[in-house]
Amino acid sequence: MFVAASTRCFGDRPFNDACRQLEDLEFERLEVWIDESGRHLPLTDVTASPEAFAARCREVTRLPMTSFCLGFEAPQSQFEALCRTAKL
Predict the structure, then answer these.
(1) Using CA atoms, how far apart are residues 30 and 48, in angstroms rounded to an integer?
(2) How far apart are CA 29 and CA 6, in angstroms?
(3) pLDDT by residue (tens digit) across 8-62?
(4) Residues 59, 77: Cα–Cα separation, whole Å
(5) Any residues with CB less than 8 A from the CB of 82 and at least 6 apart, and which?
(6) Residue 5: is its pLDDT beyond 80?
(7) What's residue 29's pLDDT?
(8) pLDDT at 43
(9) Given this model, what pLDDT does residue 79 score?
(10) What is the signed CA dihedral for 14, 12, 70, 23, rounded to 10 degrees?
(11) Please, are residues 40 and 15 in contact by the beta-carbon 8 Å criterion?
């Protein structure tokens, strides 16, 4: 069994800081919260270039991503890009 936490736990901080905090707390997996307002992690940061986002995550944290958390309905084109990102 693995223990995961969401970057939403630290949604008041930048995405990179939230990842580092969860790593410091010794979580084993990461749920990525995508914030519609863009304060934490805007959807466009993820979907503009799925490969670049995946590389950025690998640079920021050693924690594998388990899921994405969306609190809104994404446009079809961005949802498809998000699915491509999830496969990476």
Answers:
(1) 21
(2) 9
(3) 999 899 999 999 999 999 999 999 998 877 678 888 888 888 889 989 889 999 9
(4) 26
(5) 34, 43, 46, 47, 50, 68, 70, 74
(6) yes
(7) 96
(8) 87
(9) 85
(10) 60
(11) yes
Three-state DSSP class for 5?
strand
What's the longest Cα–Cα distance across the chain? 35
CA angle 63, 78, 87 (to 5 degrees): 40
Question: What mean pLDDT is predicted for residues 60-67?
Answer: 91
Burial class (CB within 10 angstroms; exposed 0-12, middle 13-18, buried 19+) of 40: buried
Question: Would the CA dihedral through 71, 47, 52, 14 be positive or negative?
Answer: negative
